[in-house]
Design a protein that fits this description.
Length: about 250
Amino acid sequence: MTWKNKFEIAGRRKQTGQRTTPLRSLAGRATPRRVAPSNGTFKVQAFLESAGIARTIVEYRRGEAIFTQGDLPEHVHYIQKGGVKLSVLSKAGRQAVVAMLGPGEFFGEGCLAGQTVRMGSATASVDSTVLLVNIDQMRRLLHEQHALSDRFIAHMLARNIRIEQDLVDQLFNSSEKRLARALLLLARYGKQDKPARTIPPVSQETLAEMVGTTRSRVNFFMKKFQRLGFINYEDGLKIHGSLLTVVLHD
């Protein structure tokens, strides 16, 4: 297993479940047309944004609910920009974050497998633009557009790998390693060549919920990481690739 695969993870954090009205909604509908791959790479966003795809584009503020657990599903969602937090609420009232997603990722696809209600909630973790495709339209596109179907299957396999690795991380790694891994993933480490990257605003309480520990422990480790030069707070929280040594250390 490569280090890149090792760090794919979903986090844990709380969300209010409060629904608000989206800022803007743009809809279009027409007969679907085929969009050829460009340079051998299928451009999902260009395809979904094409004039022939029935879709809705919605902008959400940070913290705004996209859908809530128990809602009736109507769309498959695709993140154009921003980020989305997926969470679930237990019968006992305990909330857990199961994924932190970014641009280019689908969510809400459980409806394609027969889910009649949303099994969790989706909230914008930052100001975000999300493209919504009707369930029936998405099913037809996956049958007719092989390039889109291949891309969607690849997405689902990657999501499954992330869930499995998250479970392994929770079972076998210390809270310090889990925190380091969560920070690297929030910085999308391995998906860009910058030696350091500023991550979206995230509280220590949220980080604690992501890794399954207390806020005081997160505060202790964050101070330690800062002292060792793995992170800094200049112009936001910046994560350095050297933080990887914490995860690899036995």
